[in-house]
Design a protein that fits this description.
With 121 residues, the protein is of the alpha+beta class. It is 30% helix and 40% strand. The protein has one domain: Roll (Nuclear Transport Factor 2, Chain: A), CATH 3.10.450. It contains 3 helices and 7 strands; from the N terminus they run ααββαβββββ. Strands 1, 2, 3, 4, 5, 6 and 7 form a 7-stranded mixed sheet that branches. A hairpin with a 5-residue loop joins strand 5 and strand 6. Helix 2 crosses helix 3. The chain starts with a helix and ends in a 7-residue tail after the last strand.
Amino acid sequence: MELSELITLYTGAWSEPDRALRQQLLNRVWAEDGTYTDPTAHTAGRKELVDHIGGFFEQFPGAHFELTSGIDMHHGKLRFTWRMVLADGKVFMEGVDFGELSPDGKLHRIVGFFGPLAPKP
Protein backbone atom coordinates (compact mmCIF):
# COMPACT_ATOMS: atom_id res chain seq x y z
CA MET A 1 0.00 0.00 0.00
CA GLU A 2 1.27 3.47 -0.81
CA LEU A 3 2.11 5.69 2.13
CA SER A 4 -0.48 8.32 1.20
CA GLU A 5 -3.23 5.68 1.14
CA LEU A 6 -2.01 4.26 4.47
CA ILE A 7 -2.20 7.65 6.19
CA THR A 8 -5.51 8.54 4.51
CA LEU A 9 -7.04 5.32 5.86
CA TYR A 10 -5.50 5.95 9.30
CA THR A 11 -6.91 9.49 9.54
CA GLY A 12 -10.16 8.06 8.17
CA ALA A 13 -10.28 5.77 11.22
CA TRP A 14 -10.03 8.88 13.40
CA SER A 15 -13.01 10.27 11.48
CA GLU A 16 -15.16 7.12 11.66
CA PRO A 17 -17.70 7.01 14.50
CA ASP A 18 -18.91 3.48 13.65
CA ARG A 19 -16.79 1.02 15.67
CA ALA A 20 -17.01 -1.83 13.14
CA LEU A 21 -15.98 0.39 10.22
CA ARG A 22 -13.19 1.96 12.30
CA GLN A 23 -11.96 -1.54 13.16
CA GLN A 24 -11.97 -2.47 9.46
CA LEU A 25 -9.89 0.59 8.57
CA LEU A 26 -7.36 -0.06 11.32
CA ASN A 27 -7.13 -3.76 10.39
CA ARG A 28 -5.79 -2.60 7.03
CA VAL A 29 -3.21 -0.10 8.30
CA TRP A 30 -2.36 -0.70 11.98
CA ALA A 31 -0.01 -3.43 13.26
CA GLU A 32 -1.71 -5.73 15.77
CA ASP A 33 0.87 -4.75 18.44
CA GLY A 34 1.15 -1.10 17.38
CA THR A 35 1.29 1.69 19.96
CA TYR A 36 -0.32 5.12 19.88
CA THR A 37 0.74 7.90 22.25
CA ASP A 38 -0.38 11.52 22.58
CA PRO A 39 -0.45 13.98 25.50
CA THR A 40 -3.69 12.44 26.79
CA ALA A 41 -3.28 8.70 26.17
CA HIS A 42 -1.10 5.69 25.45
CA THR A 43 -2.59 2.62 23.78
CA ALA A 44 -1.02 -0.74 23.03
CA GLY A 45 -2.59 -2.92 20.36
CA ARG A 46 -5.19 -2.34 17.70
CA LYS A 47 -8.21 -3.00 19.96
CA GLU A 48 -7.11 -0.34 22.47
CA LEU A 49 -6.72 2.18 19.65
CA VAL A 50 -10.19 1.37 18.28
CA ASP A 51 -11.61 1.91 21.78
CA HIS A 52 -9.60 5.10 22.36
CA ILE A 53 -10.90 6.63 19.14
CA GLY A 54 -14.42 5.65 20.25
CA GLY A 55 -13.88 7.69 23.41
CA PHE A 56 -12.88 10.62 21.24
CA PHE A 57 -16.27 10.45 19.46
CA GLU A 58 -18.07 10.40 22.82
CA GLN A 59 -16.38 13.71 23.67
CA PHE A 60 -16.61 15.29 20.21
CA PRO A 61 -19.55 13.86 18.24
CA GLY A 62 -19.37 14.68 14.55
CA ALA A 63 -15.72 15.75 14.62
CA HIS A 64 -13.23 14.58 12.01
CA PHE A 65 -9.53 14.83 11.17
CA GLU A 66 -7.91 16.27 8.06
CA LEU A 67 -4.35 16.01 6.82
CA THR A 68 -2.78 19.46 6.54
CA SER A 69 0.59 18.50 5.07
CA GLY A 70 2.27 16.03 2.84
CA ILE A 71 3.77 12.93 4.42
CA ASP A 72 7.51 13.02 5.04
CA MET A 73 9.27 9.65 5.32
CA HIS A 74 12.73 8.16 5.58
CA HIS A 75 14.14 4.90 7.00
CA GLY A 76 10.68 3.62 7.91
CA LYS A 77 9.91 6.74 9.98
CA LEU A 78 7.28 9.31 9.02
CA ARG A 79 5.63 12.55 10.02
CA PHE A 80 2.61 14.58 8.97
CA THR A 81 0.41 17.37 10.32
CA TRP A 82 -3.32 17.32 10.86
CA ARG A 83 -6.21 19.29 12.26
CA MET A 84 -9.30 18.29 14.17
CA VAL A 85 -12.50 19.88 12.87
CA LEU A 86 -15.61 19.95 15.05
CA ALA A 87 -19.10 19.13 13.78
CA ASP A 88 -19.80 22.85 13.29
CA GLY A 89 -16.76 23.21 10.98
CA LYS A 90 -14.51 25.04 13.46
CA VAL A 91 -10.92 23.91 13.79
CA PHE A 92 -10.48 22.75 17.38
CA MET A 93 -6.87 21.62 17.35
CA GLU A 94 -3.86 21.11 15.13
CA GLY A 95 -0.95 18.77 15.63
CA VAL A 96 1.85 16.68 14.25
CA ASP A 97 2.25 12.91 14.30
CA PHE A 98 5.50 11.02 14.10
CA GLY A 99 5.32 7.38 13.15
CA GLU A 100 7.12 4.17 12.41
CA LEU A 101 6.22 1.38 10.03
CA SER A 102 6.33 -2.32 10.82
CA PRO A 103 8.28 -4.67 8.52
CA ASP A 104 5.03 -5.52 6.69
CA GLY A 105 4.34 -1.82 5.97
CA LYS A 106 1.64 -1.15 8.55
CA LEU A 107 1.75 1.60 11.15
CA HIS A 108 3.54 0.27 14.22
CA ARG A 109 3.91 3.42 16.28
CA ILE A 110 2.41 6.89 16.25
CA VAL A 111 3.42 9.62 18.68
CA GLY A 112 1.28 12.72 18.40
CA PHE A 113 1.81 16.26 19.63
CA PHE A 114 -0.89 18.91 19.93
CA GLY A 115 -0.52 22.54 18.90
CA PRO A 116 2.55 24.52 17.88
CA LEU A 117 5.81 24.43 19.76
CA ALA A 118 6.30 27.12 22.40
CA PRO A 119 8.64 29.91 21.34
CA LYS A 120 12.22 29.76 22.53
CA PRO A 121 12.58 31.58 25.87
